[in-house]
Amino acid sequence: MAYKRQIDRLPIIPADAKKHNVTCHYCIVGCGYHAYTWPINKQGGTAPEENAFGVDLSEQQGAETEAWYAPSMYSIVKQDGKDVHLVIKPDQGCSVNSGLGSIRGARMAENRRSDVLGTQQQRLTEPMVWRYGTWQPTSWEDALDLVARVTARVIDDGDEDDLYVSMFDHGGSAGGYENTWGTGKLYFDSMKVKNCRIHNRPAYNSEVHSTRDMGIGELNYCYEDYQLTDTIFMVGANSLETQTNLFLNHMVPGVRGDTLAKKEAELPGELHAPARVVVVDPRRTVTVNAFEEVAGKENVLHLAINSGTDLALFNALFTHIADQGWVDAEFIAASTFQDGVAQPQDEQHPAALGSFEAARAACRMSLADAAAICGVSEADIAKAAEWIAMPKEGGARRRCVFPYEKGIIWGNDNYRTIGALVNLGLATGNIGRPGGGVVRLGGHQEGYMRPSDAHVGRPAPYLDRLIIGGGGKVHHIWANDHYKTTLNASEFKRVYNRRTNMVKEAMDARAGATREELVDAIVAAIEAGGLFSVNVDIVHTQIGQQAHVILPAVESGEMNLTSMNGERRMRLVEKYMDGPGSAKPDCLIAAGLAQALERVLREEGRDAYADRFKGYDWASEEDAFMDGYHANTGQIVTYDRLRAMGNNGVQEPVIGYEDGKLIGVKRLYADGKFDRHGREDKKALFCCGAWRGLQAPGKAAQKAGFRFLVNNGRSNINWQNWFLDKDNDFVADRYPYPFLEIHPDDMADLGLAAGDLVEVYNDVGATQAMAYPVETARRGETFMLFGAPSGTQGNVINAGTNELILPNYKQTWADIRKISDAPATVKHLSFKSKEYRMG
Amino acid sequence: MRCRKMAEIGRRQFLRGGALATAGAAAVAVSGPEARAAVAPARVAYPANRLANIADLTVNEPLDVAYPDDDAPGVLLKLGHPVEGGVGPEGDVVGFSTICPHKGYPLFYNAEDRTLNCPGHFSRFDPEAGGQQVWGQATQNLPQYVLRVDDDGEIHAEGVDELLYGRLSNVL
C-alpha cells in the first residue's frame, strides 16, 4: 500500500497565532517559511476574521493559494513546556522561493519531534554513557566530566594531536554561525587541533580550493542571475532534485522567457531571448527532462560525457572560445593577472595558476581530442561553445552562468576541473556581472565562522586514513556519520568497530569502578590501540553505535540559528519550539565541554593550560553569535536587526546598517577586483591544468576491472543523509532501500526484475540496493542513491582522493549480483520513469 | 447535479452543527438552562456519491468526475488488471483526485505509461500503485477514493485517504 496519512481535516491557524521567521534547514537554497504556533486548546475558524489568512476557508482555495497547508506541514510540539499546534508553511513573500515548498522542506513540521503525534522519537533527549554493557541515560554534568577527564589525559598545551575531531562546517540543521563558532573556538582557539575533518569529506579542507586560489569565492552571484542570463551551463548538478526551488523559481522563469521584460529593463541595449541550457552530466536526469519540457529540446544541450572527463571538455571549450576570439579581452586585461605563471604547481597547488595566455597554452585541447575522450561529438562541443560565448546578434557579449556541484566537486581531478570551469567564466567576463557567475550550487546552507584553521595545513591530514592506521586516541564527533557518508566506508567501519570495541570492553570490565579507575581503564585500552568516541548529534547515528558518550543536540527552530544560502542570503531562524529533553545547541555543548576541561585541568594543577578554556560563559546561542559572527564581521549584525529583515534577510557581506535595514551585497566582484586568494593586486588567476586522465589512485584499475559504473548522488524526496527522513513514513515508504538505476537490458543480463535486491561489490567493499529500471540509462552505467541507511554507497568507493584530499565518489566501478527477489517492503512500489511525461 | 446536491447537504449539516455550538455557548453565558451540546464527529462525514457505472468505463480511458463535491475534480480509471484500492469485478477500477497536492495544479493522464502528471512542477503519480508519487514535489501521495460498486455496477465514492489540496477539511 502506498503510504497514506488518512487525514481528512486539519486545525485552522487562528488569526492571533504566533508567527516566526523560518528558513528551511535543509538545502543550500534556504527557502523562506513561517512557523505558526498557537495554544493546543484553541483553533481558528473558516470565517475570514477567524483565521490567519483572512479568507473564507469554507470554500475551495485555488492553485498556489497561501491559505492551505498539507498534513506534512502540521504538528503538535512543546513550546515553553506546553503543547502547541505548529504549522510550518512556505512564505510567498520570500524572494528565494515565492511560496514554493520542496518535498523536503514542506515536511519540516512533520519531522519535528512530537511526543503527542509520535514523530521523530529517534531524537536524542538525554546524554548517555556506555555503562553496564549498553548506553545509560545520565546528566550533562556526569557525561561531560567523563569526556573531559579522558580528553584531558591525551591532550597537553601545544600537543593536541591525539585528539581527533570530526565536525560539521555547514549552516542550516544543527549547523549555523552559532554552532560552527562554538566548536571552532574550542578546537581552533582554545586548542589547535589539526587532525580533524568535515561532515562530508575525510579532511578539513575546502571543496573548491582552485576557485579560491584563482581569487574567486565560489558563491559570487545572486539567484536572479538565472533570470537575466542568455545561457545556463550547468555541470555535475541535478538542480531540480537538489536545489529544487532555485530551479523552479529562478531557472525555469529565465529559460521559459517569463523574465524578458526584466531583462529589457535591467539590461537595455542588447538582444534578449529566453535562456538556453547546456547540462554536462553522464546521466540523463530529471533536470534535463524538465529543462527540455520548459525550453524545448532545441534549446537544451545535454552533453552526456564519459564519467570523469569534464576537464577535457572544459579545456576544449576554453581553447575553442579563445581561438574564435569570443573572449572578453577588456575584462581579461583589466581584472586578471598578465605575466605568465603567478603560482607554480606544487604540493599545495595541483596545477599552476597564472595569466590567460599561460592557461591557454597549458590547457590546449582540440575539439577532436575532447570528443574522443568525452564520448560526445565535436559538433556538440562547438555548439556548447557558441551558446556560452559567441557574441549575440548586434555584437553584445553573451551572458552565461556556470553553476556546478558534486559531479565535479566529488569527481575526477577536483582542483584542475573546477579551475578549468572558472577559466571559462573569467575568459568570457562572466563573474561579478548580471546574468553571470561561476558558482557552486551547494549542498547544505553555509554558516561558517571559526578562528583560523591555518595550523591544519595543506594538504590537510586525511583523518579517516589516520584512524584506519591506528592514529588518534580520543575522537569527538559533531554531526558526522562516517558510517553512512564517507568513502572507503567498508574498511573504516571494520577498523572503527574494532578500536572502539576495545574501549567498550575495558569499560565493561570495570563496571562499578570509581571515575578515576574507569578513566585509567579507558586510557589503558586507548594505549593498546583503542579509540574513545564521543558523539554529539540529534539522533543516534550509525557511527554513534560505537560511541562511549553520546551528547544530544538541538537543531534549527529548537534554537535561534543563523545561516546563509547559495546567494549569501543570511537569515535568522527564530526558535519556535523546545528541543527534546535536555538537548542543547551545539555551541552551548562546546561551551560546556570547554568549561569541564578547564575544571579538570585546574584540578590536575595544569593552570596555564586551563586558562586557555576561559571565555565560554554564554547563556544562550545569541551570546555565541555575538562572540563569533558579530565580533568578527564589523559588529553590524545582531539578532534584532536580522529578525527585522525577515525571510529575505540580507546578502553577505553585510556592509552597513541604514534606516533600520542591514545593507548587503547583491553580487561579489562587481568592481572587477578579486581577492579570495589574498593577492594585493586583486587580479584573478587562470588555472593551467592540462587533462591527465583519471587522477585519483586506483580509479583507472577499478574501471578496467569491473563492469558497471556506480555513479551516485541524491534524490528529491529525502534529505541527503536521511538523518530525519529515515524515521519519516512517507519517505521510507517510497525508498525502503536505496535505488540503483540501471538499464533494463543490463537487468535482463543479471536476471533482475524491478525491485530485486542486489549486491554491489568491488575491490574495496560491498553494499546493497534495489534495482530500478531506467530506460534512459546507458548500458553499463548505474546510479545509486547516496547516504541511505539501508545500503551505504560509500562502502564501494575506494580511498583514492586528489592531492588535497578531496574524495572522488563519482568515479566508482563495481560488479552487481542479485541477492533476492524484491523484499516485502518493496513490492508495492512504482518503478515507472521519474521523467515528467505529459502524454 | 447529484454531486452538487450531496455537497449542499453536507454543507447544511456543517452549518447546523456550528450554529448549535454557538447557541450552546450563548446559553451558558446567560446562565440559562443547560443546552444539549452538539457532538462533532471525529472524522468528516463523507457523502456517498454515485460517480459512474462500470459500463461507462473503458480500459485506460480516464473518466472525469468530482468528489466529494463539484469543486474537487477527480478521475475514474479502469486499468484492466487488479490494482491497489481497485473495485469492480476485476478489481481494476480506481478513483483519484486530480488536483496536485503540491500547489494545486490540474493533473493530466498519460495513457502510455499510466501516470498522472502535473504541468506545474513536474510531479507524477502512479494510479496503478495507490497514487504513489513516482517523483515530484508533493509531500503526500495522491488522494485516492474509497469506492464501492453495487449490484447494478454503479460506482460510489465514500471517502478519500489524504487531505485534498486547497481545503483544510475534505468536506466543506
From TrEMBL, chain A:
Arsenite oxidase subunit AioA/Iodate reductase subunit IdrA 3Fe-4S cluster domain location: 24-116
Glycosyltransferase keyword on record: no
Residue ranges of every copy of the Molybdopterin dinucleotide-binding domain listed in the record: 709-802
Coiled-coil regions listed in the entry: none
Domain Molybdopterin oxidoreductase per the UniProt entry, residue ranges: 123-594
Record-linked Pfam families: Molybdopterin, Molydop_binding, Rieske_3
Keyword terms, alphabetized: Iron, Iron-sulfur, Metal-binding
Protein name: Arsenate reductase (Azurin) large subunit
Source organism of the structure: Paralimibaculum aggregatum
Lineage: Bacteria, Pseudomonadati, Pseudomonadota, Alphaproteobacteria, Rhodobacterales
